[in-house]
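[job 0412] stage=complex_fold ligand=guanosine-5'-diphosphate status=START
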Amino acid sequence: MVEAVVGANWGDEGKGKITDMMAEKADIIVRFQGGANAGHTIVNDYGKFALHTLPSGIFYQHTTSIIGNGVALNIPILINEIKSIVERGVPTPKILVSDRAQMVMSYHILFDQYEEERLGGKSFGSTKSGIAPFYSDKYAKIGFQVSELFDEELLKEKVVRIAEVKNVTLEHLYHKPPIKPEELLEELHSYREMIAPYVCDVPSYLAQAIKDNKTILLEGQLGTLKDPDHGIYPMVTSSSTLAAYGAIGAGIPPYEIKKIVTVCKAYSSAVGAGAFVSEIFGDEADELRKRGGDGGEFGATTGRPRRMGWFDCVASKYGCRLQGTTDVAFTVLDVLGYLDEIPVCVGYEIDGEVTTDFPTTAKLEKAKPVIKKLPGWKCDIRGIRKFENLPENCRKYVEFVEEQIGFPITMVSNGPGRSDIIYRGSALS
Ligand code: GDP
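[job 0412] stage=complex_fold status=DONE, emitting C-alpha coordinates
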Protein backbone atom coordinates (compact mmCIF):
# COMPACT_ATOMS: atom_id res chain seq x y z
CA MET A 1 0.00 0.00 0.00
CA VAL A 2 1.41 3.38 -1.00
CA GLU A 3 0.21 6.56 0.71
CA ALA A 4 1.24 10.16 0.10
CA VAL A 5 1.42 13.11 2.49
CA VAL A 6 1.34 16.41 0.63
CA GLY A 7 0.44 20.08 1.16
CA ALA A 8 -2.61 21.95 -0.15
CA ASN A 9 -1.18 25.44 0.00
CA TRP A 10 2.17 27.25 0.12
CA GLY A 11 3.94 24.69 2.31
CA ASP A 12 4.51 24.73 6.09
CA GLU A 13 1.11 23.13 6.63
CA GLY A 14 2.50 20.66 9.17
CA LYS A 15 3.29 17.78 6.80
CA GLY A 16 6.33 16.81 8.87
CA LYS A 17 4.24 16.14 11.94
CA ILE A 18 1.62 14.16 10.01
CA THR A 19 4.30 12.09 8.23
CA ASP A 20 6.14 11.44 11.48
CA MET A 21 2.84 10.29 12.98
CA MET A 22 1.82 8.10 10.02
CA ALA A 23 5.35 6.68 9.77
CA GLU A 24 4.69 4.69 12.92
CA LYS A 25 2.66 2.28 10.80
CA ALA A 26 4.84 2.52 7.68
CA ASP A 27 7.81 0.46 6.54
CA ILE A 28 9.35 2.88 4.07
CA ILE A 29 9.24 6.67 3.76
CA VAL A 30 10.30 8.30 0.50
CA ARG A 31 11.14 11.91 -0.28
CA PHE A 32 10.24 12.32 -3.95
CA GLN A 33 10.91 15.96 -4.87
CA GLY A 34 12.47 19.22 -3.73
CA GLY A 35 15.68 19.69 -1.88
CA ALA A 36 17.07 21.25 1.26
CA ASN A 37 15.24 24.50 0.51
CA ALA A 38 12.27 23.82 2.77
CA GLY A 39 12.20 22.27 6.19
CA HIS A 40 9.91 20.13 8.25
CA THR A 41 9.71 20.71 11.96
CA ILE A 42 9.09 17.64 14.05
CA VAL A 43 8.57 17.34 17.78
CA ASN A 44 8.87 13.85 19.27
CA ASP A 45 10.41 11.94 22.18
CA TYR A 46 13.94 12.80 21.03
CA GLY A 47 13.28 16.56 20.97
CA LYS A 48 12.54 19.15 18.33
CA PHE A 49 14.13 18.76 14.89
CA ALA A 50 14.19 20.79 11.69
CA LEU A 51 14.77 18.37 8.82
CA HIS A 52 15.64 19.61 5.35
CA THR A 53 16.55 16.51 3.41
CA LEU A 54 15.84 13.45 5.53
CA PRO A 55 12.32 12.02 5.36
CA SER A 56 10.22 12.62 8.46
CA GLY A 57 10.06 8.89 9.27
CA ILE A 58 13.70 8.88 10.24
CA PHE A 59 12.97 8.64 13.97
CA TYR A 60 11.60 5.10 13.94
CA GLN A 61 13.87 2.09 14.00
CA HIS A 62 11.53 -0.06 11.93
CA THR A 63 11.49 2.28 8.91
CA THR A 64 13.70 2.67 5.86
CA SER A 65 14.14 6.25 4.68
CA ILE A 66 14.62 6.84 0.99
CA ILE A 67 15.80 9.79 -1.06
CA GLY A 68 14.10 9.27 -4.41
CA ASN A 69 15.34 10.19 -7.87
CA GLY A 70 13.09 13.30 -7.95
CA VAL A 71 14.97 14.98 -5.11
CA ALA A 72 17.62 17.68 -5.49
CA LEU A 73 20.25 15.87 -3.45
CA ASN A 74 22.68 18.03 -1.50
CA ILE A 75 25.12 15.39 -0.23
CA PRO A 76 26.98 17.41 2.46
CA ILE A 77 23.65 18.57 3.92
CA LEU A 78 22.30 15.00 3.95
CA ILE A 79 25.41 13.65 5.68
CA ASN A 80 25.42 16.47 8.24
CA GLU A 81 21.76 15.94 8.95
CA ILE A 82 22.32 12.23 9.61
CA LYS A 83 25.25 13.08 11.89
CA SER A 84 23.33 15.71 13.81
CA ILE A 85 20.33 13.51 14.60
CA VAL A 86 22.55 10.58 15.65
CA GLU A 87 24.50 12.95 17.93
CA ARG A 88 21.21 13.83 19.62
CA GLY A 89 20.46 10.21 20.49
CA VAL A 90 18.37 9.07 17.52
CA PRO A 91 19.37 5.49 16.55
CA THR A 92 21.33 5.36 13.26
CA PRO A 93 18.63 5.28 10.61
CA LYS A 94 18.49 3.01 7.57
CA ILE A 95 18.85 5.29 4.55
CA LEU A 96 18.85 4.54 0.83
CA VAL A 97 19.60 7.05 -1.91
CA SER A 98 18.49 6.51 -5.48
CA ASP A 99 21.32 5.96 -7.95
CA ARG A 100 19.26 8.10 -10.33
CA ALA A 101 19.01 11.10 -7.99
CA GLN A 102 20.94 14.11 -9.21
CA MET A 103 23.21 16.21 -7.05
CA VAL A 104 23.10 19.86 -6.07
CA MET A 105 26.62 21.09 -6.82
CA SER A 106 28.34 23.99 -5.09
CA TYR A 107 28.00 26.06 -8.28
CA HIS A 108 24.20 25.63 -8.21
CA ILE A 109 24.13 27.37 -4.86
CA LEU A 110 26.39 30.14 -6.17
CA PHE A 111 24.26 30.61 -9.29
CA ASP A 112 21.17 30.89 -7.09
CA GLN A 113 22.86 33.64 -5.05
CA TYR A 114 24.22 35.46 -8.10
CA GLU A 115 20.84 35.43 -9.81
CA GLU A 116 19.04 36.82 -6.75
CA GLU A 117 21.74 39.54 -6.54
CA ARG A 118 21.29 40.35 -10.22
CA LEU A 119 17.49 40.54 -9.91
CA GLY A 120 17.74 42.76 -6.84
CA GLY A 121 14.25 43.94 -5.80
CA LYS A 122 12.64 41.75 -8.47
CA SER A 123 13.97 38.52 -6.97
CA PHE A 124 11.83 35.43 -6.40
CA GLY A 125 12.68 35.20 -2.72
CA SER A 126 14.73 32.06 -3.28
CA THR A 127 16.17 30.30 -0.25
CA LYS A 128 19.44 30.24 -2.23
CA SER A 129 19.82 26.49 -1.83
CA GLY A 130 20.57 26.04 -5.53
CA ILE A 131 17.23 24.41 -6.32
CA ALA A 132 16.23 26.38 -9.44
CA PRO A 133 19.71 26.15 -11.07
CA PHE A 134 19.78 22.45 -10.14
CA TYR A 135 16.47 21.60 -11.83
CA SER A 136 17.31 23.83 -14.81
CA ASP A 137 20.45 21.77 -15.35
CA LYS A 138 18.59 18.50 -14.85
CA TYR A 139 16.18 19.34 -17.66
CA ALA A 140 18.96 20.87 -19.79
CA LYS A 141 20.59 17.43 -19.37
CA ILE A 142 23.78 18.76 -17.85
CA GLY A 143 23.21 17.55 -14.29
CA PHE A 144 25.27 14.99 -12.38
CA GLN A 145 23.49 11.76 -11.46
CA VAL A 146 24.63 9.75 -8.42
CA SER A 147 25.36 6.73 -10.64
CA GLU A 148 27.87 8.81 -12.60
CA LEU A 149 30.05 9.25 -9.52
CA PHE A 150 31.23 5.68 -10.05
CA ASP A 151 32.42 6.22 -13.61
CA GLU A 152 35.74 8.07 -13.37
CA GLU A 153 36.26 8.39 -17.15
CA LEU A 154 32.85 9.98 -17.56
CA LEU A 155 33.48 12.39 -14.69
CA LYS A 156 36.84 13.54 -16.06
CA GLU A 157 35.31 14.40 -19.41
CA LYS A 158 32.12 15.90 -17.99
CA VAL A 159 33.74 18.35 -15.55
CA VAL A 160 35.53 20.03 -18.47
CA ARG A 161 32.34 20.22 -20.50
CA ILE A 162 30.26 21.61 -17.61
CA ALA A 163 32.89 24.17 -16.57
CA GLU A 164 33.01 25.43 -20.16
CA VAL A 165 29.26 26.05 -20.27
CA LYS A 166 28.95 27.51 -16.77
CA ASN A 167 31.95 29.79 -17.13
CA VAL A 168 30.36 31.74 -19.98
CA THR A 169 27.54 32.83 -17.68
CA LEU A 170 29.81 33.33 -14.70
CA GLU A 171 32.13 35.59 -16.64
CA HIS A 172 29.70 37.54 -18.83
CA LEU A 173 26.47 37.72 -16.84
CA TYR A 174 27.57 37.62 -13.22
CA HIS A 175 31.21 38.79 -13.48
CA LYS A 176 32.31 36.16 -11.00
CA PRO A 177 35.30 33.78 -10.81
CA PRO A 178 35.19 30.78 -13.17
CA ILE A 179 34.81 27.10 -12.22
CA LYS A 180 38.03 25.06 -12.38
CA PRO A 181 37.40 21.53 -13.76
CA GLU A 182 39.93 19.97 -11.37
CA GLU A 183 38.14 21.48 -8.34
CA LEU A 184 34.83 20.22 -9.65
CA LEU A 185 36.30 16.74 -9.97
CA GLU A 186 37.53 16.92 -6.37
CA GLU A 187 34.06 17.97 -5.22
CA LEU A 188 32.55 14.96 -7.02
CA HIS A 189 35.11 12.60 -5.47
CA SER A 190 34.22 13.83 -2.00
CA TYR A 191 30.53 13.26 -2.75
CA ARG A 192 31.29 9.74 -3.97
CA GLU A 193 32.97 8.89 -0.70
CA MET A 194 30.12 10.30 1.36
CA ILE A 195 27.21 8.77 -0.54
CA ALA A 196 28.62 5.33 -1.50
CA PRO A 197 27.19 3.44 1.52
CA TYR A 198 23.64 4.56 0.73
CA VAL A 199 23.33 4.14 -3.05
CA CYS A 200 20.52 1.85 -4.22
CA ASP A 201 18.38 0.96 -7.24
CA VAL A 202 15.33 2.43 -5.53
CA PRO A 203 12.58 1.53 -8.07
CA SER A 204 13.59 -2.17 -7.87
CA TYR A 205 13.66 -1.98 -4.08
CA LEU A 206 10.19 -0.39 -4.01
CA ALA A 207 8.77 -2.87 -6.55
CA GLN A 208 9.77 -5.70 -4.24
CA ALA A 209 8.39 -3.84 -1.21
CA ILE A 210 5.03 -3.40 -2.98
CA LYS A 211 5.00 -7.13 -3.78
CA ASP A 212 5.70 -7.86 -0.11
CA ASN A 213 2.71 -5.69 0.92
CA LYS A 214 4.87 -3.15 2.73
CA THR A 215 3.44 0.25 3.60
CA ILE A 216 5.22 3.02 1.74
CA LEU A 217 4.77 6.70 2.56
CA LEU A 218 5.60 9.34 -0.02
CA GLU A 219 6.48 12.63 1.65
CA GLY A 220 5.95 15.83 -0.32
CA GLN A 221 7.59 19.17 0.21
CA LEU A 222 5.81 22.55 -0.02
CA GLY A 223 2.26 22.47 -1.41
CA THR A 224 0.03 22.67 -4.49
CA LEU A 225 0.34 26.44 -4.87
CA LYS A 226 4.12 26.09 -5.27
CA ASP A 227 3.81 23.51 -8.04
CA PRO A 228 5.52 24.73 -11.24
CA ASP A 229 2.52 23.74 -13.41
CA HIS A 230 -0.49 24.21 -11.16
CA GLY A 231 0.79 26.80 -8.67
CA ILE A 232 1.25 30.56 -8.68
CA TYR A 233 3.80 30.54 -11.50
CA PRO A 234 6.44 32.00 -11.56
CA MET A 235 6.49 32.30 -7.75
CA VAL A 236 6.73 28.54 -7.46
CA THR A 237 9.33 25.93 -6.71
CA SER A 238 11.15 24.01 -9.44
CA SER A 239 9.83 20.50 -8.90
CA SER A 240 6.27 19.24 -8.79
CA THR A 241 4.73 19.26 -5.32
CA LEU A 242 1.82 17.02 -6.35
CA ALA A 243 1.17 13.48 -5.13
CA ALA A 244 1.06 12.37 -8.77
CA TYR A 245 4.73 13.26 -9.06
CA GLY A 246 5.39 10.89 -6.18
CA ALA A 247 5.14 8.05 -8.68
CA ILE A 248 7.86 9.59 -10.84
CA GLY A 249 10.09 10.95 -8.08
CA ALA A 250 10.12 7.60 -6.28
CA GLY A 251 9.89 5.30 -9.31
CA ILE A 252 6.62 3.42 -8.68
CA PRO A 253 3.48 2.86 -10.78
CA PRO A 254 0.98 5.74 -10.31
CA TYR A 255 -1.93 3.36 -9.62
CA GLU A 256 -0.19 2.09 -6.48
CA ILE A 257 -0.88 5.38 -4.62
CA LYS A 258 -4.09 4.49 -2.78
CA LYS A 259 -4.33 7.16 -0.14
CA ILE A 260 -3.48 10.86 -0.49
CA VAL A 261 -3.44 12.80 2.76
CA THR A 262 -3.45 16.50 1.99
CA VAL A 263 -2.38 18.70 4.87
CA CYS A 264 -4.18 22.03 5.37
CA LYS A 265 -3.41 24.44 8.15
CA ALA A 266 -6.32 26.08 10.02
CA TYR A 267 -5.01 29.50 8.89
CA SER A 268 -2.58 30.42 6.09
CA SER A 269 1.10 31.25 5.92
CA ALA A 270 3.50 31.65 3.03
CA VAL A 271 7.15 32.37 2.47
CA GLY A 272 8.64 34.20 -0.46
CA ALA A 273 6.90 36.50 -2.90
CA GLY A 274 3.67 35.89 -4.82
CA ALA A 275 -0.07 36.50 -4.59
CA PHE A 276 -1.56 35.65 -1.21
CA VAL A 277 -5.18 36.76 -1.28
CA SER A 278 -6.13 36.22 2.37
CA GLU A 279 -2.92 37.83 3.69
CA ILE A 280 -3.13 39.99 6.81
CA PHE A 281 -0.71 42.64 8.02
CA GLY A 282 0.33 44.70 11.04
CA ASP A 283 -0.61 43.73 14.59
CA GLU A 284 -3.20 41.21 13.45
CA ALA A 285 -0.52 39.31 11.48
CA ASP A 286 2.11 39.70 14.23
CA GLU A 287 -0.21 38.17 16.79
CA LEU A 288 -1.03 35.14 14.61
CA ARG A 289 2.64 34.73 13.61
CA LYS A 290 3.76 34.80 17.24
CA ARG A 291 1.16 32.23 18.30
CA GLY A 292 1.37 30.09 15.15
CA GLY A 293 2.90 26.65 14.66
CA ASP A 294 5.04 25.53 17.55
CA GLY A 295 6.88 28.63 18.74
CA GLY A 296 5.93 31.02 15.95
CA GLU A 297 5.71 31.04 12.18
CA PHE A 298 9.31 31.49 11.10
CA GLY A 299 10.95 29.56 8.26
CA ALA A 300 12.55 26.24 9.28
CA THR A 301 15.39 26.77 6.78
CA THR A 302 15.83 30.54 6.69
CA GLY A 303 14.34 31.80 9.98
CA ARG A 304 12.43 34.35 7.88
CA PRO A 305 9.11 35.54 9.35
CA ARG A 306 6.33 33.89 7.35
CA ARG A 307 3.60 35.95 5.71
CA MET A 308 0.31 35.31 7.51
CA GLY A 309 -3.33 35.12 6.49
CA TRP A 310 -6.70 33.59 7.26
CA PHE A 311 -7.77 30.19 5.98
CA ASP A 312 -8.40 30.37 2.25
CA CYS A 313 -11.20 28.06 1.13
CA VAL A 314 -10.68 28.90 -2.55
CA ALA A 315 -6.97 28.08 -2.58
CA SER A 316 -7.43 25.02 -0.35
CA LYS A 317 -10.29 23.55 -2.38
CA TYR A 318 -8.11 23.89 -5.48
CA GLY A 319 -5.04 22.65 -3.63
CA CYS A 320 -6.85 19.52 -2.41
CA ARG A 321 -8.38 18.80 -5.81
CA LEU A 322 -5.07 18.93 -7.67
CA GLN A 323 -3.50 16.60 -5.13
CA GLY A 324 -6.23 13.99 -5.61
CA THR A 325 -7.06 14.13 -1.92
CA THR A 326 -8.62 11.14 -0.19
CA ASP A 327 -8.15 12.59 3.33
CA VAL A 328 -7.52 16.07 4.69
CA ALA A 329 -5.38 16.51 7.79
CA PHE A 330 -6.42 19.85 9.27
CA THR A 331 -3.58 21.14 11.44
CA VAL A 332 -2.66 23.78 14.01
CA LEU A 333 -6.29 24.31 14.99
CA ASP A 334 -5.27 24.91 18.62
CA VAL A 335 -3.57 28.18 17.65
CA LEU A 336 -6.88 29.89 16.78
CA GLY A 337 -8.23 29.56 20.34
CA TYR A 338 -7.41 33.21 21.16
CA LEU A 339 -9.78 34.78 18.61
CA ASP A 340 -13.29 36.12 19.32
CA GLU A 341 -14.15 35.73 15.68
CA ILE A 342 -12.28 33.81 13.02
CA PRO A 343 -12.21 35.31 9.53
CA VAL A 344 -12.21 32.83 6.64
CA CYS A 345 -11.72 33.64 2.97
CA VAL A 346 -14.70 32.07 1.16
CA GLY A 347 -14.37 33.65 -2.29
CA TYR A 348 -12.27 35.89 -4.51
CA GLU A 349 -13.59 39.08 -5.99
CA ILE A 350 -11.97 39.66 -9.38
CA ASP A 351 -13.06 42.62 -11.53
CA GLY A 352 -16.31 42.91 -9.56
CA GLU A 353 -17.20 39.22 -9.81
CA VAL A 354 -17.01 36.69 -7.01
CA THR A 355 -15.60 33.25 -7.72
CA THR A 356 -14.66 30.20 -5.70
CA ASP A 357 -12.43 28.87 -8.49
CA PHE A 358 -8.71 29.48 -8.09
CA PRO A 359 -7.53 31.51 -11.09
CA THR A 360 -4.25 31.76 -13.03
CA THR A 361 -1.63 34.16 -11.73
CA ALA A 362 -2.52 37.35 -13.64
CA LYS A 363 -6.11 37.20 -12.36
CA LEU A 364 -5.01 36.09 -8.94
CA GLU A 365 -2.99 39.30 -8.57
CA LYS A 366 -6.27 41.23 -8.85
CA ALA A 367 -8.27 39.06 -6.44
CA LYS A 368 -9.66 40.55 -3.24
CA PRO A 369 -10.76 38.22 -0.44
CA VAL A 370 -14.43 37.73 0.40
CA ILE A 371 -14.34 37.20 4.14
CA LYS A 372 -16.85 35.43 6.38
CA LYS A 373 -16.42 35.55 10.14
CA LEU A 374 -17.13 32.50 12.27
CA PRO A 375 -17.46 32.64 16.06
CA GLY A 376 -14.33 31.62 17.99
CA TRP A 377 -14.22 29.10 20.85
CA LYS A 378 -11.95 31.09 23.16
CA CYS A 379 -10.22 28.24 24.94
CA ASP A 380 -7.29 25.86 24.74
CA ILE A 381 -8.17 22.67 22.85
CA ARG A 382 -4.83 20.90 23.26
CA GLY A 383 -5.08 17.50 24.88
CA ILE A 384 -8.57 16.79 23.53
CA ARG A 385 -8.63 13.41 21.73
CA LYS A 386 -12.21 13.10 20.53
CA PHE A 387 -13.94 15.30 17.97
CA GLU A 388 -17.16 15.44 19.98
CA ASN A 389 -15.23 16.80 22.97
CA LEU A 390 -14.11 19.90 21.05
CA PRO A 391 -16.06 23.10 21.80
CA GLU A 392 -19.10 23.49 19.57
CA ASN A 393 -17.75 26.52 17.69
CA CYS A 394 -14.53 24.68 17.02
CA ARG A 395 -16.38 21.71 15.53
CA LYS A 396 -18.44 24.14 13.47
CA TYR A 397 -15.27 25.75 12.15
CA VAL A 398 -13.96 22.35 10.98
CA GLU A 399 -17.33 21.41 9.48
CA PHE A 400 -17.60 24.75 7.69
CA VAL A 401 -14.14 24.41 6.15
CA GLU A 402 -14.85 20.83 5.12
CA GLU A 403 -18.04 21.87 3.36
CA GLN A 404 -16.27 24.73 1.58
CA ILE A 405 -13.33 22.68 0.32
CA GLY A 406 -15.39 19.55 -0.43
CA PHE A 407 -12.88 16.99 0.83
CA PRO A 408 -13.19 14.93 4.02
CA ILE A 409 -11.27 16.19 7.04
CA THR A 410 -10.49 12.88 8.74
CA MET A 411 -7.70 14.14 11.00
CA VAL A 412 -7.57 17.26 13.13
CA SER A 413 -4.23 18.20 14.68
CA ASN A 414 -4.41 20.17 17.92
CA GLY A 415 -0.77 20.37 18.98
CA PRO A 416 2.72 19.77 17.58
CA GLY A 417 3.29 16.37 19.24
CA ARG A 418 2.73 12.93 17.71
CA SER A 419 -0.27 12.20 19.90
CA ASP A 420 -1.98 15.57 19.37
CA ILE A 421 -4.40 14.20 16.81
CA ILE A 422 -8.14 13.66 16.57
CA TYR A 423 -9.44 11.10 14.07
CA ARG A 424 -12.87 11.77 12.74
CA GLY A 425 -15.34 10.07 10.49
CA SER A 426 -16.50 12.46 7.81
CA ALA A 427 -19.80 12.42 5.97
CA LEU A 428 -17.76 13.11 2.83
CA SER A 429 -15.45 10.09 3.06
P1 GDP B 1 5.81 21.33 7.05
O1 GDP B 1 6.92 21.88 6.26
O2 GDP B 1 4.54 21.20 6.26
O3 GDP B 1 6.16 20.07 7.76
O4 GDP B 1 5.46 22.39 8.17
P2 GDP B 1 6.45 23.11 9.19
O5 GDP B 1 7.21 22.11 9.94
O6 GDP B 1 7.19 24.19 8.54
O7 GDP B 1 5.40 23.91 10.09
C1 GDP B 1 4.56 23.31 10.93
C2 GDP B 1 4.83 23.85 12.33
O8 GDP B 1 3.68 23.68 13.08
C3 GDP B 1 5.92 23.08 13.06
O9 GDP B 1 6.55 23.95 13.97
C4 GDP B 1 5.13 22.01 13.80
O10 GDP B 1 5.76 21.54 14.99
C5 GDP B 1 3.91 22.76 14.14
N1 GDP B 1 2.68 21.99 14.21
C6 GDP B 1 2.25 20.97 13.41
N2 GDP B 1 1.01 20.61 13.74
C7 GDP B 1 0.64 21.43 14.77
C8 GDP B 1 -0.56 21.58 15.53
O11 GDP B 1 -1.57 20.91 15.33
N3 GDP B 1 -0.55 22.56 16.49
C9 GDP B 1 0.52 23.37 16.73
N4 GDP B 1 0.42 24.29 17.67
N5 GDP B 1 1.65 23.26 16.01
C10 GDP B 1 1.70 22.32 15.06
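The chain has a mean pLDDT of 94.
[job 0412] exit 0
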